[in-house]
Amino acid sequence: MLVVTVRKSDHETRRQSALKEKEKKLRGLSGQLATLLPWKGDVGLLAEMLVPEMAQVLNWKAEIDAAEKDLRQNEDAVERLAAERKRCKAEIEALKASDDAIDDELASTVRTARNKAWNQHLGNLDDETAGKFEKAMKADDDVTDFRLHRSEDIASLRQLKQTLAGEEADLESAVSRRDAALASLQVIQEQVQKAILEMTVPGASSLPKEFAPIQLEYWLDRQGNALETQSQIREHDVDIAAAESECSEHHKKITEALTAGKISFDPDADLDKLLDIAQLAIDQNKANEVDRKGAEKAVKDCDRVLKRRIGNLEKAQRNTESWGTDWSSSITDCWLSEDERFQKPAVVRKILGENALLISAIEKQEGLTHRVKEMETDQKSFAEKVGAIASELSMEFDKSEPLNTADAIRERLEIARRDKHARTKKQEELETAENRGREISGKKAVDAALLKEMVAFFSLEKMSELNQKRDDVIHRTGLRGKRKDLESRILDGLKLATIAEADTMLAEIDRESLEVERAELETRSTDQEQYSHELYAEHERLKHEVNSVGGDDAVARIAEKRQTTLLELEEKALKYLRIKVGAEATERALRLYRDKHKSSMMSQASKAFRMISRQNYTGLSTQPEKDRDVLVGIGADGTSKIASQLSKGTRFQLYLALRVAGYHEFVHSRESLPFIADDIMETFDDFRAEEACKLFAGMAEVGQVIYLTHHQHLRAIAKEACPSVKIHELPNPTSS
């Protein structure tokens, strides 16, 4: 039982498993310590480190992110305000450079000089003071007249000075906020650096002071993983020790049992060898017991066999004597008695055996002889038939080797069968190909006639232009369907019979008033919808109260209140529906207005895009996609691409074409405003830049175009595209 109990114990399995896990964790710990670089040291030093709480690290991280964001915002504000201040100063200097007289300080100086000359003339009243006063008076009048003519510039100069003062104040405030944000960031970084210095442990390298909180967060996470791995290694050491202790206890018990059984063994042997020795002793003891019981049974069996054999021997002796007497009597009357050699039973038994073999051999010989004759007949017949077939096939025939000729005939038969099968298959393929050819010829003739008819219908010169016409027809069909749908929706929404009536009605509508009315209706619709929900909730509550009351007059009061509530609900619902329908009609009217004005703008944009792309694109179109229209560029080769599929430079050309079209559409119905562009042709080559300048020249005929650039080569291109262009070189503003 002890051996069985020890063998059932899993202490060795647990020890091996713990050792493997420990080795695995040690390899993992080595890798984890490597991830802690630039820190170097063992895991013991790692555990001694005084690390900050993760919450504090996350707080530092959030504070630094907030401080850096504030710093970036203030730095952007400082840069923006500094640029605006430079621009404002440049505009002031430009106005002053046009004429010094527009400056209030110069006007004040001239006026002071006039008053001084007047006072001197009043004191002296002579020709000299009168001349000076006349000269001063004339200068003041000139300045006054000039300032009256330049009143707008003077007002602009004053406004720019006020703006400059405000921007300088804002700039000073932004610089102060930037410095405060930078100081706050430095304070937080100092706290982080202090915490990193406090983490230093003697015997290990320290982390760099410039570690960011996010780096510290990741490092602390990896440190925690390493310490967790070390803790798991300690647990595996405990499991290994427990398994080894259990193994020692089993070794002690097995040793005591072997000693008690007086079995020789090596005291220093391991537990497995001792178990093998004990098991061998147990097995030997069991085998000896089995052998003993087997020997006792064998003795008893031998006694029974001996008695039985003695009886059989006596019976056999009696039978032998009787058989000898019968044998002598039997051979007395036959030929065996003539020769003493044949009177022995053994000799007679041998003779009888040979006689039986002789009869069998004779029968076998007769059968083989018959088979040989039949085979010779078959061979002769086979040779005759093979010879006949070979003669019909004009083949050589060797009578001595008919099998070779038969094999050759068999090969020719197989070849003939394969050739017949191949011929049948090829014949079928030929018929299929001929039918297919006739079918293709018929289709080809029909297609050729159809293509010829289509080319004649569209009056085309080249067959390649037919694809473009086909796309145009498909596009036209889609547009017609879309137009029909939109007309149906317009007529349904406006309750009119014809689209002409709808155009007349919509032409009289003011778009701005529609926008205002739409916004008001949407607001009122939201309020009414909320109010209807509240009334429905009130209705349900009252319904619940009605169901919960008894049979007194409360039911009548509730019924009356319910009727009143239903009437209010009906009134509010009808009002909500009217507002909802009005908002929908307004939305449809706005959509129709946009569609009505889109065609002229699309034509302008197509023309501008074709011009900028130097005929690489012939125009623009739209195609529906879900609930909106997508802009499509039509290439010179007839292909089309949506805006998102165009290259970056081509998209910039498209955007400029849309802005040019929008500007023409704007100035067509309103007072023109300046069109200002700031270096939008960075991705254009010289040819496309020239076409863009020509577009700007066309825009300048109906308004003013201002283009800002620092590329010198665009000046020559602009002059060539528009000889009347005016180029202004702005002076480099001095840094403030």
Describe the structure.
This protein is mainly α. Among the domains are: 110 residues; 105 residues, no CATH class. The chain is 77% helix and 4% strand. It has 18 helices and five strands. The strands form two sheets. It has a three-stranded antiparallel beta sheet, with helices on one face. A two-stranded parallel ribbon has the order 4-5. Helix 12 runs antiparallel to helix 15. The longest helix has 60 residues. The model has no long low-confidence stretch (mean pLDDT 76).
Summarize the structure.
With 736 residues, the chain is mainly alpha-helical. It contains 18 helices and five strands.
Strand and helix layout:
Layout: H1 2-8, H2 11-34, H3 43-48, H4 54-98, H5 104-124, H6 127-149, H7 151-198, H8 213-260, H9 271-330, H10 345-392, H11 402-458, H12 465-494, H13 499-507, H14 511-548, H15 554-612, E1 617-625, E2 628-635, E3 640-642, H16 648-669, E4 675-678, H17 686-700, E5 705-708, H18 713-721
Parallel strand pairs: 4-5
Antiparallel strand pairs: 1-2, 2-3
Helix pairs in contact: 2-8, 4-7, 4-8, 5-6, 8-9, 10-11, 12-15, 14-15, 15-16, 16-17, 17-18
